[in-house]
Amino acid sequence: MSRIAYVNGAYRPQREACVNIEDRGYQFGDGIYEVVHLYRSRFVDEDLHLDRLERSLREIRLPMPMPRVALRQVLHEVARRNRISEGLLYMQVTRGVARREHAFPTEPVPPALVVTVRRIPPYPRDIESWTTKAITHPDLRWARCDIKTVNLLPNVLARQAAREQGASEAILFDEASGMVREGAATSFWIVDETGRLRTRQLDHAILPGCTRAALIRELDAEGIAYETGEFSLDDLRRAREAFLTSATSFVKPIVQVDGAPVGDGGVGPVTRQLFAIFARHVQGGDNRAA
After folding, report:
1. How many CB atoms lie within 10 A of CB 201?
2. Closest CA to 288 of 219, 188, 240, 193
3. What is the pTM of this model?
4. Per residue in 175-208, pLDDT tens?
5. What are the CA-CA distances from residue 88 to residues 28, 52, 118, 247 (Å)?
6. Domains annotated on the chain, with CATH
7. pLDDT mean over 41-63
8. Catalytic sites, residue numbers
9. I need a labelling partner for 127 at 20 to 30 A (CA). Which of 69, 101, 213, 240 fits?
10. Under the phi-then-psi rule, with left for phi > 0, alpha for psi from -120 to 50, and beta for the rest, what region is 86?
């Protein structure tokens, strides 16, 4: 069956879908995107993703392409037409089509909206087979990483560097201070050498991860202590455990960084517990956070 995409008001076979060559997302990266996990026909943390979409659009002074209720209908219709109940949905909003000039179009143009979906394997059951390796990499991105923009070239280069070193993620750090920020496409956590669960505080230097936020809600509900604040590369290298969170990583243990084992090189007890907690969240919904 041909995959179906939504492009600017029409559902089309994906092989026939296209955007104008003067779309500002194509020419300038002038746009915002979101990726949402679909589990048993339910979008996991849907409101968190739509809230972040609206916030990112406000930050670049771009209106929503349609009211939220209508956008929800489009997202679910794309999933329905593709007959996908377990997958990843991608949505992208750009400033639309206009003559190529760096400043915003002088005459308003409609925002452009593209939505696609693809199948993925179900939530992993075996955490031992869900581990990964990472490298550290200087953060070369711009100063507003809290906006989920389609400008991802530094992230692409960091991920490529990880792949070339036999890893799947690059942990970005500030070269001046040596402080860890986040993964190239994930939020990053450690259990430090004293046993504290830690992740960086939110500010302009990192993306406010929706899976990060959902996990924090679960930690609060379970009474599990954690800290948000800066930590260094040295803290990372001495950590007992490390893991990633994202809509595609869920809770993903890191067992090696820069070729050296994290802790004893296996899945630690805190990560194992949080993997199970988040599996329950994905499978049962976020009822307690409503």
Report:
1. 11
2. 219
3. 0.94
4. 999 999 999 999 999 999 999 999 999 999 999 9
5. 25, 17, 6, 8
6. 4-119 (3.30.470.10), 127-289 (3.20.10.10)
7. 97
8. 33, 148, 182, 207
9. 213
10. beta
